[in-house]
Structure formats: structure tokens, C-alpha cells
Design brief:
This is Hemerythrin (Two domain). With 278 residues, the protein is mainly α. It contains 10 helices and no strands. It folds into 2 domains: 137 residues, Four Helix Bundle (Hemerythrin (Met), subunit A); 136 residues, Hemerythrin-like (Four Helix Bundle (Hemerythrin (Met), subunit A)), CATH 1.20.120. α4 packs antiparallel against α5.
Length: 278
């Protein structure tokens, strides 16, 4: 049952695109190699299969290195402000893969499976969803962000109650982009952030109660993500006095995309997949 849940998360989705043809194509290629590696790791435990798995992991390592170089050149071309932090994340991921490749000959198949899954799920996929999406948001102008902002059916987790609350969060966030008189903007922003903060806490409480009801195995980790999102909202509130209106709106759009959209895509869908499997 757990393996089936894991497989859901390595299916490429259009929401992962960062609107750069080369980077998006390489991400899709990496997903394909990752799927190949995980599928190979599930085969019978004999020398031929282990050798085949080692070759796929080495292939993944080589392609990840090439992709990171290309992505860093792209960040330099668009003057991405957080490039050094992003490079540091790349370095850590390459170190993880380097260690895995160097230890393959001394590891049992079960150990290889666990290390491989941890890398693909916890680092590689989350890196694309959370960090690479920030590059896209940086390189998208505010008008386009506003135009594309809002609930879309592809965000559905196929649970009516949770979907309804997710839609409500989008509705609240969208209020921040409604034009008002200049003297009303500061109050509008404060009201939107307060409503978003309050409703997000309510939604997270309901979601955590649901996870408890179905004995969701990753509830502790999911709660930590909820806590991080609330902290990010608090951080934006604290920075509000130092941000001009356009920068604030872009920061809010980024927060919603990363904290809400990608959280729904990557984490909330796992809850529903688990619920359907029990």
C-alpha cells in the first residue's frame, strides 16, 4: 500500500512547469529516470537486477549534474536574486547522490530502495515543486501572476470538503489583488492577511482532524508543513512595512503558489491517496 502511494508522487504534472522549455524538458526526463529507478528497485533481489539498478542510479546522478548546470546558467541569465541559496541546495543534493553511488556496492537491495526513494521523494521532487517554482515566479511579471492566479480544477484532491476549503483560501487571497483607492490599500492588505491567516489555521485544523481519523502515517510531517506555512505568513506580515505594494503583491502570490498550490499538489493528494487505499 505504501509503495502505491509513493508511485503517485513521481508522475509529472503540468503544474510543475516553470515555463522554460529546456528546464521543463529536463525535469520531465529526470522524472522518467526516477520512475525507471524506482520500478527497477521493486524487481526481484538478484545480482542482475541490483546491477541494473546501479546503472539507473548512476544515470540519474549524471543527468542531475547536467541539469543543475543548465538551471544555474538560466538563473544567471535572468539575474535570479536567490541563486546562491539555490546553488547550495543543488550542491547538497549532488552530495547525497554521490554518497549513494559510492556506497552501492556495499548496500543490500532494501537499503538501496530506501535511500533512492528518500532522495527522489524528499529532495528531488520537493526541490522542483518548491524551489524551482520560485524561479518561475521571480521571472513572471505581476500582471501575469494576477491573471493566472486562482483556483483551478487540476488542484482538486477529489475530496469535496477539503476542495471547498482550498477554494475558499484562494478566494481570500484573490481579494489582495482587487483594486481600491490608494488610501485604502494598506487597510485592505491588512484585512486580507488577517482573513487568510485565520482561515488557513481553521483549514489546517480540519485537515489534521481528518488525518487523525484515517490514521494517516505521515501526519507529524504534514503538521510541520502546516506550521511552516503559518510562519511564512507571519514573516510576510512582519515585512509588510518595508515592501512597496507591487513587491508585496508578488510576494503574496509567491507565498500562495508555494505554500498552498504546491502543498495541495504534493502533500494533500497523499492524504487522499492513503484514504482510498485503506
Amino acid at each position: 500500500m505504501k509503495q502505491e502511494t509513493n508511485n503517485i508522487s513521481i508522475i509529472w504534472k503540468s503544474e510543475y512547469n516553470i515555463n522554460n522549455f529546456t528546464i521543463d524538458r529536463e525535469h520531465q526526463d529526470l522524472f522518467s529516470i526516477a520512475r525507471e529507478a524506482l520500478n527497477t528497485s521493486k524487481l526481484k533481489n538478484d545480482k542482475d537486477q541490483i546491477d541494473k539498478l546501479k546503472k539507473v542510479i548512476t544515470k540519474l546522478f549524471d543527468y542531475v549534474g547536467t541539469h543543475f548546470n543548465n538551471e544555474q546558467k538560466y538563473m544567471e541569465n535572468i539575474s535570479y536574486p536567490d541563486i546562491e541559496e539555490h546553488k547550495f541546495l543543488h550542491k547538497n543534493m549532488l552530495n547525497m547522490l554521490t554518497n549513494l553511488v559510492s556506497e552501492l556496492n556495499t548496500m543490500e537491495l532494501e537499503q538501496i530502495q530506501k535511500s533512492l526513494y528518500n532522495f527522489i521523494e524528499e529532495y528531488f521532487i520537493k526541490h522542483i515543486i518548491l524551489e524551482d517554482k520560485k524561479i518561475q515566479l521571480w521571472n513572471t511579471n505581476l500582471d501575469d501572476l494576477k491573471k493566472n492566479f486562482g483556483w483551478k480544477e487540476i488542484y482538486s484532491v477529489q475530496n469535496p470538503a477539503i476542495d471547498a476549503e482550498h477554494k475558499k483560501l484562494f478566494d481570500i487571497a484573490q481579494e489582495a489583488f482587487i483594486e481600491v483607492e490608494p488610501q485604502q490599500k494598506a487597510q485592505k492588505i491588512k484585512n486580507v492577511l488577517t482573513k487568510l491567516y485565520d482561515y488557513m489555521k481553521t483549514h489546517f485544523k480540519h485537515e489534521e482532524e481528518y488525518m487523525q481519523e484515517i490514521n494517516y502515517p505521515n501526519i507529524k510531517e504534514h503538521k510541520k508543513l502546516h506550521h511552516k506555512i503559518i510562519e511564512d505568513i507571519n514573516s510576510l506580515v512582519r515585512r509588510l512595512p518595508s515592501l512597496n505594494e507591487e513587491l508585496f503583491e508578488k510576494e503574496l502570490a509567491k507565498l500562495i503558489d508555494i505554500a498552498l498550490v504546491q502543498h495541495i499538489i504534493q502533500e494533500d493528494r497523499k492524504i487522499i491517496t492513503w484514504a482510498k487505499s485503506i
